[in-house]
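The authors assume throughout that readers already know how a fold can be written as discrete tokens. For illustration, here is how one protein appears when written out as sequence plus structure tokens:
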Amino acid sequence: MTKLSAADKFIDLSDYGRPLAKFFANQLKNTPFTPVHVTLLFGISGLIAIYCIIEGYYWLAGFFIILKSVIDAADGELSRIRSTPSYFGRYLDSIFDIILNFLFLMTICYITKSSVLLFFFAFIGMELQGTLYNFYYVILRNNSMGGDATSKIFEDKPPIAFPGETQKSVNLLFKIFRASYGIFDKTIYLLDRNAVRIKFFPKLFMTLISIYGLGFQLLIIAVMLPLQLIDYIIPFFIFYSFFIFVFIGIRMTLVK
């Protein structure tokens, strides 16, 4: 199963790690490693990046941040190769993402001695950016012929567990997922509730908004670190959030 049908695929600027992720997943296809193992691996890569930031190894930090993005895509690829969709893996992946985003920005805040308030605004902004992109992307995926519908537009109750995973574990991770992302999902929905009626988004529009995808956000951090721009990362993500209203305005005006 692919995320989108061939007709709906667009250039996703946040998905630059997909070719390497597919290669990595294919190497693991006939091994005992599971998608959850891969998810744990990208978590480790993220923690190594945080250690490198603290120690001032910014080139290495950038490398491990990008590596985290590649491995982050590989768990889903391995799941699709084996035809073993998993709500447990999907929620665990998202929970790890938000924890690492928090830790990345918190570490940068500590190193640059930024105010906690600015850190808070940057983190909220970063999550709202990613949520807007995911909101439109999930709508497109659910309307795409043969697309991956593991992610839902509205997730108000735990889904029925797939074979091979327990309902109890899915329920637990769903509760953590909702506690982590619920406020961001509701905020974006309130800002553009009519988007759920859209059946198709132009490819150019999706490409533009993919700059809000997590992979692209992390690429920005990975580039700014070795360029000695660490002091500007938190202000950047606050400023970057203003384009949320630009993209929603474009959607309301041109995509109906």
